[in-house]
Specification:
Layout: H1 4-8, E1 15-26, E2 37-40, E3 46-54, E4 60-66, E5 69-74, E6 81-89, E7 92-99, E8 105-117, H2 121-127, H3 133-142, H4 144-150, H5 157-164, E9 167-179, E10 185-191, E11 197-205, E12 215-221, E13 224-231, E14 241-247, E15 250-257, E16 261-274, H6 277-282, H7 291-299
Antiparallel strand pairs: 1-8, 2-7, 3-6, 3-8, 4-5, 4-7, 9-16, 10-15, 11-14, 11-16, 12-13, 12-15
Helix pairs in contact: 2-4
């Protein structure tokens, strides 16, 4: 379940947080509990639901609330696996699953990817979100209004990722584990050796975990031991769940299970990336960087 606690753990914007939910039983005429997402009062951030995965079951509806938008989607009309969705919220984001059928739904999984970022001035202008007086002054100083009207800004995530995250190396890590309940298995332990480099976790997959195994993957990042947990059975019918989790100091991944599991397969992809001045400016670790660079990053034109 995505909560305000998850958002408050985000440090290196933008981040893509994967989230998973398992529901052993959803009774007829009920809403699945807990809801996959229920966030009110988003703290100076924007959250975008970008990809969702679920079984295509007739009689199950997906309801998404993003600020003033409410959509109801019959899951029986969708394809299984991750589908392309894009709902952006600055105040309220709710995701609910409703059994509107006459039969109970058993062993239902739901996985989602959420992009969390601090909106730039250009994004606020595009979405007609209010600017602070300081942001209005900066927008006038840099001539931002016209670039947004022309469609030149804001910078897209795809462009930003290719331009700003200079990949120095990349590797798929994999493990096949015999799991014992109550034992935590470390499957990745990376420490950044160079202050000008960072690691980024960008996808996870686990194709052979059964629903009842209840295998949990935990990501520990830069001293945050509970940064992220994923229930891997929700990924059984998806190729992978995408994420974008930068780590400047350490990236540790562990696995636990609720019952004995033989041959649990877990794979994930990690990039080694150059820590550029633009990233430092965006994350507030700019040091002696020129002030105009910081302004342009904040504005969303650099």
């Amino acid at each position: 379940m995505l909560t305000l606690s998850n958002l408050n753990r985000v440090r290196y914007y933008p981040e893509i947080i994967p989230d998973t939910n398992l529901y052993p039983l959803i009774a007829p005429g009920t809403i699945a509990a807990p809801a996959p997402a229920d966030i009110r009062g988003i703290p100076d951030l924007s959250v975008k639901a970008i990809d969702l995965s679920f079984p295509a079951i007739a009689g199950m509806d997906l309801e998404i609330k993003a600020d003033g938008v409410i959509d109801r989607i019959p899951l029986g009309s969708q394809l299984p696996g991750f589908g392309n969705f894009a709902y952006t919220a600055k105040n309220v984001l709710g995701v609910n699953l409703l059994n509107i059928g006459v039969a109970p739904v058993n062993n239902f999984y739901f996985a989602a990817q959420y992009m969390v970022t601090k909106p730039t001035i250009t994004e606020k202008l595009l979405r007609k979100w209010a600017l602070t007086p300081d942001e209005k002054t900066l927008a006038d100083e840099l001539g931002i209004y016209e670039t947004v009207e022309k469609g030149i800004r804001p910078i897209t995530w795809e462009y930003m990722k290719d331009r700003e995250y200079q990949v120095l190396g990349e590797r798929v890590y994999g493990s096949s584990l015999d799991l014992v309940p109550g034992t935590e298995y470390t499957v990745l332990d990376l420490k950044a050796a160079n202050p000008d480099e960072l690691y980024i976790l960008d996808w996870i997959t686990s194709p052979n975990i059964d629903f009842d195994d209840d295998v949990t993957l935990t990501v520990k990042r830069d001293g945050d031991s509970g940064y992220l947990t994923i229930r891997l059975a929700a990924l059984a019918n998806a190729n992978a769940i995408n994420c974008w989790i930068p780590a400047l100091q350490e990236l540790i991944i562990t696995v636990t299970s609720a019952r004995p599991v033989v041959g649990a397969s877990v794979l994930f992809n990690v990039k080694k990336v150059k820590l550029t001045n633009i990233l430092k400016a965006r994350w507030g670790i700019a040091g002696n960087m020129p002030g105009d660079v910081i302004k342009k990053v904040r504005a969303g034109i650099l």
